[in-house]
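Box 4.2: Ligand-aware structure prediction
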Amino acid sequence: MKKILIVGAGGQIGSELTTYLRSIYGDANVVASDMRESKALGEAGPFELLDALDAKAYAGIVSKYKIDSIFNLVALLSATGEKIPQKAWEINIGALMNSLEIARENNCALFTPSSIGAFGPSTPKDKTPQDTLMRPTTIYGVCKVTGELLGDYYHTRFGVDTRSVRFPGLISSLTLPGGGTTDYAVEIFYDAVKTGRFACPIPGDVYMDMMYMPDALNACVQLMETDPARLVHRNAFNITSMSFTPEILAAEIRKHMPDFEMTYRIDPVKEGIARSWPDSMDDACARREWDWAPTWDLASMTADMLRNVERKHREGKV
Ligand code: SER
């Protein structure tokens, strides 16, 4: 990767991936793009306003900067997708198809994240294998499975260097996620710091895989930099670093804030989605094929999140 384009750079992953990639590959070599203006993304390196559904504008940016690697991070998340499924398909698959075609025409490598959302209720729940039944029941998941299949198709049919991971819920303190089923695991920290309490939309006993953002950023780079000869799989690798329920997360927060209180205000849509996803994925293939190894666990992530959100709160930023 020498000249990188991030599409959807203003979102939860993109806002941190931009800074991370710029620190590795140089500010001028990482172009951030988003459909909304962003002062922060344009401060250190190039920024372009881009609606990823506009193929002509997208291709123009790729040739303007002589891009060789694209990170397509455009997506409506799972809970939002259930409110507007047709729109979710249009955006998620529209951005993906443009990315695949532009990668094919310009000989670019392409990373598009998949998700635990690619799995469904008939998937084995514990230690979910890399290769298994995938019958998701959300439009988000249908888009993710489609994306995995298209990624592999573009690789075998046209030789495009497509690679992907199935991200679990991503926890971070810079940019809030929006409209996802796993968002509670971020929101809980903000409410804990601001009010000492949190009304959880997911039942206390539902396990989901999660990951702290620094591990997710590292996964993107590590996978894209791996010698392709080692890759048996491509789209997409199971990766995880922790699996917990809301009860377990609340207990961990109480180690730092003994008075923290959690109540429940269950969102039935999110509950249904959460129950349809794996409890914990088996990421052995990623470990074997590209040396995936997370460095953050529940205890270290919780301590770091509380530190960061408390700082933001003290500075009046949240
Ligand atoms: N975080 C996503 C969601 O909850 C899953 O990939 O929709």
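In the box above, the bound molecule is serine. The chain has a mean pLDDT of 97.
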